[in-house]
Design goal:
- With about 650 residues, this protein is of the alpha/beta class.
- It is built from 22 helices and 37 strands.
- About 30% of the residues lie in helices and about 25% in strands.
- It has a seven-stranded mixed beta sheet with strand order 7-6-19-18-20-21-22, with helices on both faces. A five-stranded parallel beta sheet has the order 9-8-10-13-14, sandwiched between helices. Strands 28-27-29-31-32 form a five-stranded antiparallel beta sheet.
Length: about 650
């Protein structure tokens, strides 16, 4: 279908309005509309999060203190005196419904040459494996506050090891094995882990990658390690890697000890995530047990309407925060689908059909790639169980919304999310009680007081502004690792507006509470005084069948207008003809403005992206302004560092 921003695509049925999980909460609390609920959640902040703890029956000791001791950011303090454990809450269904399916795992490494790695785990089986690995880690001396680092793909062993780590009150941190050694070392040396868990290799896009040499390099850079655990994955008979105390995963597992949980304070460190790290050392972002439990219960239940009976999938790696969000599905009693491999072609749609996925999550680029490839998954596969589709990583344009309704199904909610690693969730996202319009994210998250600030730092409605958060959320970082005085933390989020979280995105908040994200505010196009996010630009350019990908950069600086450069990766067999250039320019002129017609269009073999798929506009801009490539971007944090040389000033 042909759609424009704001076109109505879906409305909830009366049955959905009646049975949605958030509707039950609203009825219990006496709210007549979702807007009323949101306004209460961001004005009575402590009361809202206290209600979340109570409503979900969080396992732990609530304590006698207020939910929010101090509201001033960045020093908000939550649930002082409370204790809990994330792993205990994640595995609660193992006690309530132990034979329910917890995990479905599929992998590209199953090439038919040996025993299958694919498997299914019930909650009972998952809890039993966690108990065995917990006992093994404890035998290695891992306890409260120790760090366990993992160099692992999206496999059940990663999930089990994380839950075992959390059950001990130890701190988890992971990188995907497609990260190069320098990138991993930049991350793990900052946190001084006691134990390293790593695979021998992985498979991707039809190729097999031995990582044993990289694991040895990582070991050599981590003097704090007391043991290394090897998961034989590429080669099921692979030996333990490294010297010193090295053992295989099977040797780590110890049977006979019951599963137990270390009860820890609300803000005790749960895991350490990292900023993209395209320049400088990645920021080690620490989240607490309590904040993540509450936020993921709220987001997965009230915004995605997930619970027991759902099969939840998101395409991710262990190096992206969406892995942490995906495993949060266990908190609400859902089945989660773990997939390790390339997403090429219709692979993920076929996976969804085979595993009975009810909520399907991907990055927005995958939706657009499926659209460009002319796929028709809803006709090729039985996707009738899907009732929700999540999209994140970058703004999903209206055409992407329309394609999903045309080619997947009409009776589903397309839930575009925007948030970040910084809070391990979305600031804005879907709601099954609200109508869905093309290109518009339905609402601000419950408990997330998101506003758009103009150049004067004043909130605006219906205008594009800086995305800010003016009240605290419990899943905000508790701190950055090795940032004793908190200076790096404050500078990252509160340096522009004291006491107000500035996220670095452009957002427009509509009068009815809907939101449109326009890309990063630090990669803004500013032509003749008109500011515009890059998402609008990409929507026009990548609407051409001849364009596979694109990147736009404005080289202007304070007080001086620069050049607007458009880089395009052409579809296979296409040349950049004068006709194509003319049509692109005309489309940008008519759709955006004459100011946004590029000064030059250049062909490149690929667009630089982070390992999680985000376009690297800011590093390219720095390169064009004279920063050396090795200073502008960290190649080990990139999916395709080889393309950067095509973005130099004289290229």
């Amino acid at each position: 279908m042909s759609v424009a921003e704001g076109d109505l695509l879906w409305e909830p049925s009366e049955e959905v309005r009646r049975t949605a999980r958030v509707a039950r909460f609203m009825e219990e609390r006496g709210f007549g509309s979702h807007d009323e609920l949101w306004r209460w959640s961001v004005t009575e902040v402590g009361a809202f999060w206290d209600a979340i703890w109570s409503y979900f029956g969080v396992l732990g000791d609530r304590g006698a203190g207020p939910a929010l001791e101090r509201a001033e950011m960045p020093d908000a303090r939550w649930f002082l005196g409370a204790t809990l454990n994330h792993a205990r809450n994640t595995l609660r269904r193992a006690e309530e419904d132990p034979d329910a399916t917890a995990v479905i795992f599929r992998t590209e490494a199953d090439d038919g040459s040996g025993p299958s790695r694919s498997r299914t785990l019930t909650y009972r089986e998952l809890a039993a494996e966690v108990a065995e690995v917990r006992a093994g880690l404890r035998a290695l001396g891992v306890g409260r506050g120790d760090r366990v680092a993992a160099y692992v793909p999206n496999i059940p062993e990663a999930l089990v090891a994380f839950l075992a780590t959390a059950s001990l009150g130890a701190v988890w941190s992971s990188c995907s094995p497609d990260f190069g050694a320098p990138s991993v070392i930049d991350r793990f040396t900052q946190i001084e882990p006691k134990v390293l868990i790593a695979v021998d290799g992985y498979a991707y896009n039809g190729k097999r990658f031995d990582r044993s040499g990289v694991v040895r390099d990582i070991q050599a850079a981590l003097p704090t390690l007391t043991a290394t655990v090897t998961i034989p994955y590429l080669d099921l008979d692979a030996p333990a890697i490294g010297e010193g105390r090295a053992l295989r995963y099977a040797e780590l597992r110890r049977s006979g000890e019951p599963l137990a949980f270390e009860e820890v304070p609300f803000d005790h460190p749960l895991w350490i995530l990292y900023s993209s790290g395209t320049t400088g050392l990645p920021k080690p972002i620490v989240h607490g047990h309590g904040g993540i439990v509450l936020e993921h219960l709220k987001a997965l239940t009230f915004h995605q309407d997930l619970g027991p009976g759902d099969v939840f999938f998101w395409y991710t790696t262990t190096g992206w925060m969406m892995w942490n969000y995906l495993i949060g599905g266990l908190l609400v009693g859902a089945t989660i689908v773990l997939y390790d491999g390339a997403p090429g072609g219709d692979t993920l749609w076929r996976l969804a059909a085979e595993t009975g996925v009810t909520y399907f999550g991907v990055g927005a680029p995958y939706v657009l790639a499926s659209m460009k490839a002319g796929l028709d998954p809803g006709r090729e596969y039985d996707l009738s169980r899907i009732r929700g589709i999540g999209s994140t990583g970058s703004p999903l344009p209206p055409e992407g919304f329309g394609w999903l309704y045309d080619h997947i199904g009409r009776d589903l909610l397309v839930g575009s999310f925007s948030g970040g690693t910084d809070v391990a969730t979305g600031f804005v996202g879907p709601c099954v009680l609200l109508p869905l319009r093309a290109g518009v994210i339905q609402c601000r998250g419950l408990g997330a007081k998101i506003e758009a600030y103009d150049e004067k730092g004043e909130p605006v409605i219906g205008e594009v502004g800086e995305l800010v958060l003016t009240e605290p959320m419990p899943s905000m970082p508790i701190y950055f690792w090795n940032d004793e005085d908190g200076e790096r933390y404050r500078d990252s989020y509160f340096g522009v507006y004291p006491g107000i979280w500035r996220h670095g995105d452009w957002i427009k908040v509509l009068p009815d509470g809907g939101c449109v994200i326009y890309g990063r505010s630090d990669s803004t196009l500013n032509r003749g005084g008109v500011r515009m996010g890059t998402a609008d630009f990409y929507r026009v350019v990548e609407g051409f069948d001849e364009i596979a990908d694109s990147l736009v950069v404005d080289t202007g600086q304070l007080g001086a207008e620069g050049r607007l450069l458009l880089y395009v990766q052409l579809a296979e067999g296409v040349a950049l003809s004068d006709d194509l250039v003319g049509r692109i320019r005309a489309a940008l002129r008519s759709t955006l403005s004459p100011r946004h017609v590029p000064d030059e269009i250049r062909v490149v073999p690929g667009v630089p992206r982070t390992l999680s798929g985000k376009k690297l506009e800011v590093p390219v801009r720095k390169i064009l302004l004279g920063t050396p490539i090795d200073k502008a971007a960290n190649p080990d944090a990139m999916a395709n560092p080889e393309v950067l040389r095509h973005f130099t000033p004289d290229s």
